[in-house]
Amino acid sequence: MQHYKTSLIDEEATQALGKSLARCLQAGLTIYLHGDLGAGKTALTRALLHGAGHQGKVKSPTYTLAEPYQITLHDKACKVMHFDLYRMSSPEEFIEAGFRDEFNANTICIIEWPEKAEGLLPQPDLDIYLSIPTDGRDVEIQAHSDAGQTCLSKLHFAPRL
Ligand SMILES: Nc1ncnc2c1ncn2[C@@H]1O[C@H](COP(=O)(O)OP(=O)(O)OP(=O)(O)O)[C@@H](O)[C@H]1O
Ligand SMILES: [Mg+2]
């Protein structure tokens, strides 16, 4: 499967990647975000949502587990659900909140800490790994489906070195 790797020298680079990713989104995508606390999962999602036209705030859904957004994709309304499952205490919490219904063809689901809901989530179209070397961040994006490949093949990102 296709993959892409680069370095993000500072927060601005993370923002630029989020903005570039916003241009290759399509409804129905499931995107897992991996990386330690502070790796930049929320920062990347924030830039992606702003790049996709969301004008308000994007706060970390640490306590709510999920925040919904509305964007316009190809002239159509599209929902984006931003999950942070770090504090999810049990599978019931996920199921009772109705989160399983959010994984549908009209919604893009972006999930921080998917490891916390193993077995409850569908497979991702894209896995994004953020890591913290001595300076900046490293990122690797892996596509796992046709939709993920399509998204990745549309990605145009020129990192500053
Ligand atoms: N490329 C970068 N280089 C250096 N710092 C960065 C870079 N991108 C983001 N940051 C900084 O790293 C931090 C990322 O915080 P963020 O809340 O996005 O992490 P997170 O992965 O969502 O963590 P959590 O698991 O706690 O939700 C912010 O302080 C941001 O300014
Ligand atoms: Mg976060």
From TrEMBL:
<keyword id="KW-0819">tRNA processing</keyword>
<keyword id="KW-0460">Magnesium</keyword>
<keyword id="KW-0067">ATP-binding</keyword>
<dbReference type="InterPro" id="IPR003442">
    <property type="entry name" value="T6A_TsaE"/>
</dbReference>
<keyword id="KW-0963">Cytoplasm</keyword>
<keyword id="KW-0479">Metal-binding</keyword>
<keyword id="KW-0547">Nucleotide-binding</keyword>
<dbReference type="InterPro" id="IPR027417">
    <property type="entry name" value="P-loop_NTPase"/>
</dbReference>
<comment type="similarity">
    <text>Belongs to the TsaE family.</text>
</comment>
<protein>
    <recommendedName>
        <fullName>tRNA threonylcarbamoyladenosine biosynthesis protein TsaE</fullName>
    </recommendedName>
</protein>
<dbReference type="Pfam" id="PF02367">
    <property type="entry name" value="TsaE"/>
</dbReference>
